[in-house]
Amino acid sequence: MTSIKIKIQDGDFKSSKANDKKKEIKKKETSVKKISNKKKVKKDVKEKNVVDNFRFSKKGLVEKEIKTALIKDEFNRKKNIDMDNNKEEENIKNIDEVKIPEQSVKIYKKIAFSFIFLTIVLLIIILYFSFVKVSIVLIPNQETINNNMIFDVYDKDNNNIENANSITGIIKTLDVEYEGIYESSGEEIIGKDASGMAVIVNNYNKNQPLVANTRLLTPNGELFRIRNTVNVPAGGSVEVEIYADSPNPDMELNPTRFTIPGLWAGLQDKIYAETKEKIIYKKKIKKYITELDIENCISDLKQKLLIKARSEANSLYNNYDQILYKIDENSIVNKVNGKENDEKDEFTGIINGTVSIVAFENNKASVLAKQKFISSLPQHKILLDFNNDDIIYSLNNYDSIRKIATVNSSFVGKISLKQNSEIVDPNKILGLNKKELNAYLSNIPEIAGFEVKFTPSFLPDFMKKVPKLTDKINIEIKN
User: What's the rounded Cα separation, in Å, for the pair 293 and 279?
Assistant: First the structure.
């Protein structure tokens, strides 16, 4: 007995919701192919049944039963295949009818747009932090500072220099004498006078005698008199001295014409006086020496003694550009030719003394002064200008035995901030806007001005802020 087994393999068809349209189309094409293959199998089964029926008629009943069983089995199998085919066709139909709900589409669009927006925002933030920065240029104040230093000057022949804060030079003494003439300032008024010279003119045909003390009147009524008797010839003139009847400062007169009131009125226009020069008011005084005159004389003698010593020293030590002088007070001898209340218009004074002279080179001393100035500066300050010619020297002490002098120097320098000074703390300006940053910088006393530049510069002011990363802040000090 021969048994025929027929095995038909099917693939399970699984459908799912489409997430992607291309995936749906691909699944549809796959299902259509499966249905086409199953229809072909069905056709083959029909043809086989026809063959089996023919064989059944030839071989008898036994084979008929076998065929019947086989047919029944095939029928059941066919039924199952048809059911599967119907189910697949229904699934394909369902796939064609699948539609994405409209609400889901809106959600998907919203998610997509949100993602795009966030991507753009993230890109802007990345670009902002990549390119944004701020540059601050500070213009510091320039301060003028006074300072001083004491240093020693040793004579060039003295080899015992005790410290580094010293230089060599000349240590000498000079004996100097000076004599001067001084005026007395004490005054005692013993009289007053307003007088001058005048010309008496006679345009009449007779001589005109005028006695001493003849009155003369100015156009303003000031009264003067002739000092001596004169006889003025007819058609001529005579020069005489005149004086004010009551001298006072108001009697000073510019050149003017006088009338002679003692003459007949008809002659006053023919005989008159006139001045060619100004009449001066003077006091008649007696001069005497005062106590202040003697004090001023002694003080001036010291100054003149120093000037004379300087002149002599300059000629002796002209190879040094700094020469200091100091009078030894114990060596001074003064002699004044006169005493207080002596009636003298002037008197003489003589002084003798020893002058200490210290001479040295300015460039050596200025090096010490500049070093002292720099060493006294704060760490964040720098010296901008120091003029060696502006140093002022004065002699403090003098030791003629040891041949050493102590000199005080006063000097001025211009200072400012160093370029690497941390006058602005970047951590204190993080995130400040333009207005806040300007206010912060304006309150720093060491800063005279500043310039702030934001990058990118095209941003509006409300978006210009100091980055929150210190490496994006550049601070420069420009002296």
Answer: 32
Segments of 116-155 assigned E as strands? 133-140, 143-155
The gap from C-alpha 151 to its chain's centroid, in whole angstroms, comes to 34
Output the DSSP codes for 407-440. EEEEEEEEEEE-TT---S-GGGSTT-BHHHHHHH
pLDDT one-digit tens code per residue, 429-450: 888 888 888 888 888 888 888 8
pLDDT in tens, 280-307: 888 778 889 999 999 999 999 988 988 8
C-alpha closest to that of 389 among 313, 323, 321, 315: 321
Distance, CA of 356 to CA of 329 (rounded, Å): 11
Kindly report the backbone phi and psi dihedral angles of residue 367, in degrees, each rounded to the nearest multiple of 5, phi listed first: -65, -45
Reading across the β-sheet that carries 447-455, which strands appear in turn? 447-455, 133-140, 473-477
User: Which among 177, 149, 175, 179 is positioned nearest to 164, based on CA atoms?
Assistant: 149
Blockwise average pLDDT, block size 10, the chain, 479 residues: 38 41 56 52 48 46 58 63 57 49 72 83 69 85 88 83 81 90 85 86 92 92 92 92 86 90 89 91 85 92 88 87 87 90 91 91 90 87 87 89 90 86 84 88 86 81 80 82
| Pairwise CA distance, residues 213 & 227, whole Å | 6
Distance CA(346)–CA(296), nearest Å, equals 13
Phi, psi of 31 (to 5 degrees): -65, -40
Q: From residue 435, how far is each of 93, 385, 439, 461, 479 by CA, in Å?
A: 70, 35, 6, 9, 25
Question: Do the Cβ atoms of 92 and 35 come closer than 8 Å?
Answer: yes
- Which of these, 268, 270, 252, 250, lies nearest to 260 by C-alpha position? 268
> What are 108's two structure tokens?
């998907």
